[in-house]
Amino acid sequence: MNHKKNQQDRKDSARPYLAPVSRTNDAVEAGISRRGFLGFAAASILLAHADQQSPQTESRNGIPYRTLGRTREKVSLVGLGGYHLGKQADPQESIRIIRTGLDEGINFLDNCWDYNGGESEIRMGNALRDGYRQKAFLMSKIDGRSKAAASSQIDESLRRLQTDRIDLLQFHEVIRENDPDRILAEGGAMEAVLQAQKAGKIRFIGFTGHKSPDIHLKMLATASQHKFTFDAVQMPLNVMDAHFNSFEKRVLPVLLKNRIGVLGMKPMGDHFILESKTATPVECLHYAMNLPTSVVITGCDSLSILQQALQAARSFKPLDSSEVASLLAKTVKAAADGQFELYKTSHQFDGTYANPQWLG
């Protein structure tokens, strides 16, 4: 399929409120290889770090805001994870959590077509009534790898979320070596996503994954071969990842080099890092916030956990090198074999492994 032509179609059909964004860069124009992307890891992360964090002086209700890569969108430093909202026993409490977060200054909302059988999206859709949709930068994800499966899931997410557009749609769980090729093949999911973008159903496009930096790099390189650059990429960024099969060390420099928005997830390793007794919740959040992330997504299944996240964002100050070194020294031994990052070392977090039919 001709992604270059589709990208031009996407620009031509942009909604009036969406500022035109250049979708090309030196890497894309060169059709850079996977090896080329790996080479970008040598880029200076410190300069990019300073550039990414410089807009942080902007805040809303005390919550710092950063720029989402090349999109020019401003997003809250902390984002509200969608999975845990669907696990909350009381649907009304989930709605209170979402609306409180939006009222307190968070604007980034995370979700996924498959979370809790769709319940997470349903609850978020109900929370976004009564004018709350206008406060949110809404992200959701799809599992479909075929055009048909992806198209169906996009429309279902829109219905559940009770909206006519999703601000950022991401390919979920890019965790297999063949996922990039399937998504970008003729008749693959990318065709459905580009069509949805042209129709105004979505604004920006990204992908997520938690398994391996190699697979993330392959996804970026495969997209580049099709003359496509993602707007955002989501991955684990935490005090354990820095030591083991690290997205921070291998993928983050590539995203910064290409001005792709960085979405940090699993700052506490879905609670497992806390069980290691090596770092507190606030230390985990501050470490991830200290990286050149656009937003750090964290699960909040209660108002008290939400308040903890809000306070961490409001109290965040850039860590100096000794503070970073201290945190990494405390976690290095526990992180050695990935026992607290089970999303990398097991299938425990792989929803599409247990439900391959979602892929289409």
Topology, element by element:
Layout: H1 3-12, H2 26-29, H3 34-39, H4 45-53, E1 59-60, E2 63-67, E3 74-76, E4 78-81, H5 83-87, H6 91-104, E5 108-109, H7 119-127, E6 137-142, H8 147-161, E7 166-171, H9 179-184, H10 189-198, E8 202-208, H11 213-225, E9 232-236, H12 247-250, H13 252-257, E10 261-265, H14 272-275, H15 281-290, E11 295-299, H16 303-315, H17 321-335, H18 342-345, H19 351-354
Parallel strand pairs: 4-11, 5-6, 6-7, 7-8, 8-9, 9-10, 10-11
Antiparallel strand pairs: 1-2, 2-3
Helix pairs in contact: 1-10, 6-7, 7-8, 8-10, 15-16
In short:
Helix content is 45%, strand content 14%. It has helices at 3-12, 26-29, 34-39, 45-53, 83-87, 91-104, 119-127, 147-161, 179-184, 189-198, 213-225, 247-250, 252-257, 272-275, 281-290, 303-315, 321-335, 342-345, 351-354, and strands at residues 59-60, 63-67, 74-76, 78-81, 108-109, 137-142, 166-171, 202-208, 232-236, 261-265, 295-299.
Give a structural overview:
The structure is a single chain. With 360 residues, this protein is an alpha/beta fold. Helices cover 45% and strands 14% of the residues. Strands 4-11-10-9-8-7-6-5 form an 8-stranded parallel sheet. The chain has a 3-stranded antiparallel sheet with strand order 1-2-3. α6 (91-104) crosses α7, α7 crosses α8 (147-161) and α15 crosses α16. It is globular and about 50 Å long. The model is unreliable at 4-56 (pLDDT under 50).
